[in-house]
Structures
1.
Amino acid sequence: MEAVSETTAKRRKGATAEEMATRQRDISVSEFFAKNRHLLGFDNPRKALLTAVKEAVDNSLDACEEASILPEIAVIIEDLQPDRPATAKSSRYRLTVVDNGPGIVRKQVENIFGRLLYGSKFHRLKMSRGQQGIGISAAGMYGLITTGRPMVIHTKPKAGSAAHHIELAMNTKTNRAEVTTDEEVKDFPPARLATITSGTRALVAEGGFVSPETFRTGTSVSIELEGRYQRGRGSVDEFLELTAIANPHARITFVPPSRDAGSEDDASILAHAEANAATKATATTETGGVVIYPRGVQDLPPETREIQPHPKGIELGILLQMLKDYEATEKGSLFNFLQERFCRVSSATAAQMCKAAGATSRTRAGDVEAPQAEKLFTFFQEVKLPPPPTDCLAPIGVRQLLAGLLKGVRAEFYAASSRSAEVYRGRPFQIEAAIAFGGDLPADEPARVIRFANRVPLLFQQSACSSFKAVLETGWKNYNLQQPRGSLPVGPLVIMLHMASVWVPFTSESKEAIADYDEIRKEMKLALMECGRKLGTYLNKRAKMRREGERRDVFERYIGEIAKAVGAITGEDAKRLYDALQVQAKRKTAVADQQLDEDGKVLREQGELDDDGVLIVPTAMSDAVVSAPVTVAMPELAAPPARAKAKPSTPASPKPASRSAAPSSKPPAKPASKPAPAALSKPSAKPAAKPAPAAPFKPVAPRPPAPRRPSQDGPTLF
Ligand SMILES: Nc1ncnc2c1ncn2[C@@H]1O[C@H](COP(=O)(O)OP(=O)(O)O)[C@@H](O)[C@H]1O
Ligand SMILES: [Mg+2]
């Protein structure tokens, strides 16, 4: 073996260190990512289109919120090769995203759009969608690589002044922008956008699209790129739908391209939206192909504050670097350094820390030696400190979670929970969960998990994500749902999880999945359990009401017969006996009359939401659930919503008189009105609907009633 390798080594002349040195050189960050564009989410044409939309929309939302402007965003995708053959795998598109944010000052345009790793969010600890400073410039770079076309930017930082029109391409060797057009223009948003389709023209006429009054300042970014537009899971449409759910304060208009590349099933959870649009003011609407996600709430999320790192969340190397930086900029004392560069360090704690490091409060930060820094670091771990402040976070909140889900998912039961802030590696974070159950959701499929980080939907790498693991690890059987071992629960269920943090630990640069920190997963599970408990309570209650309803029907079936027989024996008036029995039957099965909204709010009018985290929409109780019972609790759901507090409907409408009739015999119409109790109290007025118990004195049941022991206080049924 050795001999062989020796001879090979002799025959081949390898490179010398000097020769290798001639080839060793810098790698520019943009060259690196141009080669590894899959790391940034540009792996295939379909995902590339989505990623570009996502980066631009994220930036627009961030910018609007930072400037305290209610976001108004237009996303326009133009198909530049509409005549391509049907077999084409991809096509050239022009993506334009316009926002009414604060705009960008002229001198920063090249840096923002023409350089990777340049941004305002990386160095600060504050909740925002962007983090790394590679988002929009990477999208522009992908466009340049695939089409050779520069990015077109229009930005207007001052309401009264002209807008800038800049076209630039990134030089990947130098990671710098090369500007090809630079001029001042009057129109913002670019007038061209108004006339793109007949839908946009119609909307412009009513002031609902790129109107200069709404977009007084802002930015418009256009990128030409090779992409693929196809609806379904992981599509631009899904991304925008979910963004609208997590950002009910934003109004988003979307002009899709004229052609859809594929016929994948429309996995839209908003598929019902058009049908709903007539009745719900907040639902998505479509005008001539333009999709509008209207604003669900009029308030911006609470303003967030930037925080300093927490002493317990940093590493030794970082501490050393921070000391060096402080010396370079401030030349101040260790005492001041500790208070200024960390959160939760009071002057008393700072003095304690100086002492622990073997320094005085006057020691200069630059004079702190490595062993002293190490002592200081050890002390950081031991000292008791309050957790970091949480005003750097803007969670969605229970109310908005419910508003968002209600807007996007048509279900019968909604629950939400927002946990209080926790800390991982010294960084505060907050977990929120919400679930939607029943209604139009498919009953026999695994639950759908929708994941968000800092209000951004995460559409890929589900199984690598901490939130998905948390859903799997939650015991959904405890809440009356079916859950095959190690899998998602099965049932008409959508589970939403949101992590808000000053730094979301993504597993990769493309920001698709949240890393699996124990602290984070634990909080997620607790939030899910809270929602699960609310759902369990609701399902139990429905089950109980149904059982009692069935019991009452059994009683009802026989009391006519009993009243008649007892009347014949005792000479008592049979009608009076019947009424007395009826009262008893009602009393014993009173649960059946309970209102379902006792544990939560029934939605009576649009927008009437409370902070208790539960919402019930009885009118959405669907026959889909009824006819396909799949979970342990499903048979209970099979009950028509007789006892649910339903929206009052036309009182004259005929209703099925029986609540316990076999579901299969029911007409498939959606039960949306309050049936039965009236029929119970006025037996003679009961409509002769089919499987109903017959008129009081002529019971249909041929079986004789079971013998009952009479009690002292009058007629009872058991
Ligand atoms: N639409 C916009 N309006 C205002 N500022 C923007 C906009 N888009 C980007 N920016 C600025 O450009 C910076 C870089 O954006 P980006 O490359 O996406 O990185 P990141 O969002 O991670 O910081 C942002 O931090 C922000 O300051
Ligand atoms: Mg960004």
2.
Amino acid sequence: MPSKILKLGEKNEDPGPWSTNILEIGTVGTRKKPCPLCGLWFAEENLTGMSSLKTVLTLKVKWGVKGAQEKLTDSNMTASRLYTGVNMCAFCAQLTMPDPDDEDDAEMFANSPQKTPKKAPKKQEVEVKASTFLQGFLSPEAKSKYK
Ligand SMILES: [Zn+2]
């Protein structure tokens, strides 16, 4: 803790060093945890995403991570453990979101009352036609091209 906290505009009489006369600032906890999906270490505050353990394991199986299948089908893995929320990094959190373009997730969207984001219909090529008014200015040979 600083022994003296300077107020805004207040001059420091002591020429320093001011190792004890510092402004108090917010600090971040030093506890770190690995993200369950990518395995990278983050400060706990930065593991902002949340998903179920089952989703994490299912994704790992899909990616061919060793031991993920065994963990998923382990007899000790109860439903309550599988559906426990796990915190993950923001990057991995987006990977656990169902993707309407993914065939595996398509069923989820088909049975969901929630509307799936509709894909924009492909724009059809519009046939360009010269206006009949402008055609009136063309020579008879050029006009015949548009008939
Ligand atoms: Zn991650």
3.
Amino acid sequence: MLNIYASTRETLRTLAMFTSALALLVFSGQISADGWMSEEQEKAHAMNVIGPLKSDDNCTNCHGQESDTWQQTRHYSTFKDQHRSPEADKILEALGERSMKRSAECRQCHYTSSIKRGSVKPSFGVSCESCHGPAKEWLALHSKEGGDLAGEDLKWGEGKNESAEQRALRLGKAEDKGMIHSDMIYSIAKNCFGCHTVPNEKVVNTGGHIAGSDFELVSWSQGEVRHNFSSSAGAPDSPTNSPSSIEKTRRLYVTGLMVDLETSLNNIAHVSEKGGIFHMAMITRANKTKTKLTELLAKISIAELEPALTSLPKVFDESTDTSEFPKVLSAATLQFLAAHDGSKLAAIDGLIPTKTKGTPYAG
Ligand code: HEC
Ligand code: HEC
Ligand code: HEC
Ligand code: HEC
């Protein structure tokens, strides 16, 4: 059956990813199975990055307001200041490294890199393509009617008035080339947690880097990061940065918790230093998130999630082998997204955080 709420391509690609580490890289544009890119993978990734600024085809040419929003975020400013901070120096010293911008250990999370004179160089902070996927292959498709290269370029905001079929065609073709668009809530969440749980044991255990942040998808995506201009009420003439609809917010909340748990368990499965700081932090994180999911299911029964969650041990500890859990949780999350448009989930509204991380950009 064709589902209208989630991308069927996203589901198929995710299933493939669990049989091939390479598929995961292509799918997320960011992380490999153990959360890390090899040198070759990083190079292939950087080669497809266009960059938000300073080129003819850049994102800012057509997405000025999104770009203005981004330039007010930590994701942008990390490029300017974090490498000069005493906290960064301390981490680098502990690792025996000297420069944050030259260290491969730092750049996969703090920067979007491109190729300069044959090697991978950070060129921006966490920018458009860190979240939406490197764009070289999908750029020309994503703004054309039906993703048809001979078709007409959409004008700003016209996407809103396209038929659902045309939009699905357009974004589907871009998705096949690595774009992560706004309907791909699962992939978006995977990408955020792929950096925000800090899945690099060495940086955490040896460098003393924080072992992940209190990241939650709704509060962290609807504050300083939010850039909902093209879907806003006033688009295309006077776009505003609208909050996501309550239905979407509910789906983001549930997906965020599920992907948080999936990522923590995947990180645990790839740990090499048992009982190390990173391992213990991920166990705490997984237990905390599982408790939140149990509270959620006490408010409302969600048939797509229950079997997966009840199949998990009651509590995770140092000896839990978590390697089989991520794919079970992943499949459940995608089934959830396919079955729910969010309209019937009002029972969870009291659980969704209302305070945001940073203030939304107002123009
Ligand atoms: C796997 C991803 C990842 C890697 C690798 C990584 N960082 Fe971070 N780093 C993060 C995230 C995510 C945050 C922000 C967390 C937050 O805001 O809550 C962060 C925050 C920081 C901070 C601010 C910490 C604070 O307490 O305010 C410093 C300093 C830092 N990183 C330095 C480094 C250095 C130096 C390296 C390389 C040796 C590095 N990071 C590698 C993901 C990473
Ligand atoms: C030539 C103009 C142009 C350029 C350059 C461009 N875009 Fe777009 N983009 C568009 C148009 C037009 C739309 C459809 C807007 C609408 O929905 O009305 C769009 C839509 C999008 C969407 C939303 C799709 C969805 O989820 O609904 C994303 C994300 C996006 N672009 C990202 C980028 C990124 C990242 C870059 C730079 C790598 C970029 N774009 C460069 C014109 C452009
Ligand atoms: C490529 C890695 C990466 C991805 C993907 C990523 N982030 Fe971040 N994010 C970071 C790093 C690194 C920092 C901290 C930068 C610093 O302080 O130096 C950060 C900081 C933030 C902050 C500011 C936190 C603060 O303490 O002020 C917010 C909010 C945020 N991220 C939200 C998100 C959301 C939402 C997503 C997914 C839609 C996301 N991030 C995806 C790496 C990433
Ligand atoms: C931290 C990750 C992150 C970064 C960086 C980022 N985006 Fe997004 N983008 C998202 C998320 C998440 C959504 C979906 C948000 C929602 O629907 O609430 C989105 C949605 C969009 C949309 C569709 C908005 C709508 O109204 O439907 C466009 C267009 C877009 N992004 C373009 C860009 C451009 C251009 C840049 C760089 C200037 C950029 N994004 C940077 C995460 C990011």
